[in-house]
Amino acid sequence: MGFFDSEIVQEEAKRLFEDYQSLTQLGSSYGKFDREGKKMYIEQMETMMDRYKVFMKRFELSEDFSAQMTVEQLKTQLGQFGITPQQMFDQMNITLERMKREVD
Length: 104
Prior knowledge:
The chain is mainly alpha-helical.
């Protein structure tokens, strides 16, 4: 069975995408949130990033050709912006840490 044939992989990909979409939409109103709302949003973003890291690690560890191609495509796309996947995660963490400091 291929990596993308797994129902578990398909379901997690779907949930990650939907959750990310929801958080992105919600984030457009971030400036209107009260202090507790901002904290909750940041926590949800941190959880999302952790889930995404685990999901991407599954791709990296898989020997499936499709999974490896997905990793390479991500690297290529991010490379166009001059960053690696690790730098992307690092930058997201820096952004979330800055948001936490601004809330406190």
